[in-house]
Amino acid sequence: MTLLRVENLKVHYYTLSGIVRAVDGVSLSIEKGEWLSVVGESGCGKSTLAYAILRLVPPPGRIVSGRILLDGTDLLRLGGEEMRRVRGSRISMVFQDPMTSLDPLRKIGDQIVEAIVEHEELDVREARKRAEELLASVGLTSDMVNRYPHQLSGGQRQRVTIAIAMSLNPSLLIADEPTTALDVIVQDRIMDLIEGFKAEGTSIMLVTHDLALAAERSDKIAIMYAGKIVEYGPVDEVIDSPMHPYSKALLESTPRLRGPKRLRYIPGYPPDLRRPPPGCRFHPRCEKALKICSQKEPEPRYLNGRMVACWLYSGEVG
Ligand code: SF4
């Protein structure tokens, strides 16, 4: 059953130097209990997409059009108070830097209790007991409630933010580069933790630049480039037989995955999203580019649960 469906979402930033089309017509869906990873280089719009789902795009950004359906309800039509209830109780988010969501001046326990009593009718004593249970669920001891964020390691702080995110049993957990600042061993443990919540039925949306990480954990994968999803499908199929030239290049430039020993370098840079190139946005960097690629944007083509937006497949897919 589909939990979240994003349809033709556009998010733009209105800056003094022009309109940045950070998310430009993105569509995707997440089933109940499914793990979707959105993968792409820095600046491709993947974090903006995550913020937009929670309607937390910071100014000068604005959701311009599209629909975000959670169990059939369009989140873009909800009032401020209804949306506040959705945040936390239906959809939670974990950020790259836990210090952006933790108050450095307040004890961990107080911060978890506050998150709980804001949404649930529990008294402080019950909420405190729940806070200790939550800390245990993320592998932390109950004495952590009396500590301040700076008294914890980076991995412990991220566990705390995951405990807060999971405090109201959300249907969807969005994790935006949650392990980028952590070493590989702690990264693995945090991912195990998130996978444990998935096993209990929570859907996961992981936003990451790390294709290897996404390949290890996801059910589905969406490859994003310059504000658009260029390929989307079951993780094994996308990793084993990528269709889009950007997906292939990304895979060949990723260590730890199957493929040639020498890593590939993707020439050039992602485009300035104030002035994206015409046609396919990847064409200035694509070694397979055709004449049409710089003239006309490829439409997404669908086949057996996969999607690819590339002129190479215009006659073969769909
Ligand atoms: Fe390359 Fe053309 Fe496909 Fe874009 S549409 S990825 S430029 S072949």
Characteristics:
single chain, 318 residues, four-stranded antiparallel beta sheet, 9 helices, 29% helix, binds iron/sulfur cluster
What does this protein look like?
The structure is a single chain. By secondary structure, the protein is an alpha/beta fold. The chain is built from 9 helices and 12 strands. The chain is 29% helix and 25% strand. The strands form 2 sheets. It has an 8-stranded mixed sheet, sandwiched between helices. Strands 2-1-4-5 form a 4-stranded antiparallel sheet, covered by helices on one side. Helix 3 (108-119) crosses helix 4, helix 4 packs across helix 5 (154-165) and helix 5 (154-165) packs parallel to helix 6 (184-199). The longest helix has 16 residues, at 184-199. It starts with a strand and ends in a 10-residue tail after the last strand. The mean pLDDT is 91. Bound molecules: iron/sulfur cluster. Iron/sulfur cluster binds at residues 244-246, 280, 282-283, 286, 288-290, 293, 298, 310-312.
Class of secondary structure makeup: alpha/beta
Number of strands: 12
**Ligand catalogue:** iron/sulfur cluster
Total helices: the number is 9
Q: Give the CA-CA distance, first to last residue.
A: 23 Å
Largest sheet: 8 strands, mixed
Q: Biggest sheet, strands in spatial order?
A: 6-7-8-3-9-10-12-11
Mean pLDDT: 91
Q: What Rg do the Cα atoms give?
A: 20 Å
List the topology elements:
Layout: E1 2-15, E2 18-31, E3 35-39, H1 46-53, E4 61-70, E5 73-74, H2 80-89, E6 91-94, H3 108-119, H4 124-137, H5 154-165, E7 172-176, H6 184-199, E8 203-208, H7 211-217, E9 220-225, E10 228-234, H8 235-240, H9 245-252, E11 301-303, E12 306-308
Helix pairs in contact: 3-4, 4-5, 5-6
